[in-house]
Design brief:
The chain is 33% helix and 32% strand. It contains 4 helices and 6 strands, in the order βαββαββαβα. The N and C termini lie far apart (33 Å). The mean pLDDT is 95. Keywords: Actin-binding. One of its GO terms (molecular function) is actin binding.
């Protein structure tokens, strides 16, 4: 599975310049490559992010999660999310699962990985508990 150059470029913008809050990636099966599907502006929040994940299709996503530590120190962690809902086609789940590690290696700077099959597996409490 090839990775479109735009995927890495947009990720570097998120990591270095904070020009995006999140990025949703999609595998274009016809071209056999991962492409950027959605870019979330810095002002967008968690709700906007979850609305970009289709209910019955797999996706990869990167989310820049900002939070406060117990000492009220602002921090952020870059999450990689493998979104594979139970209602997705089996073939799609297999393609996403088999190419995930290679794709993730292309994105240098991922700090935490989540695998989610429904919204409850990646709600804000999960992000908070994994970030600390």
């Amino acid at each position: 599975m090839a990775v479109h150059d735009d995927c890495k470029l947009r990720f570097m913008e998120l990591k270095a310049k904070r020009t995006h809050r999140f990025i949703v990636y999609k595998i274009e099966e016809a071209q056999k490559q991962v492409v950027v599907e959605t870019l979330g502006e810095p002002a967008k929040g968690y709700e906007d992010f979850t609305k970009c994940l289709p209910a019955d299709e797999c996706r990869y996503a990167v989310y820049d999660f900002e939070y406060l530590t117990e000492g009220n120190v602002p921090k952020s962690r870059i999450f990689f999310i493998g979104w594979s809902p139970d209602t997705a086609r089996v073939r799609s789940k297999m393609i996403y699962a088999s190419s995930k590690d290679r794709f993730k290696r292309e994105l240098d700077g991922i700090q935490i990985e989540l695998q989610a099959t429904d919204a409850s597996e990646m709600d804000l409490d999960v992000f908070k508990s994994r970030a600390n």
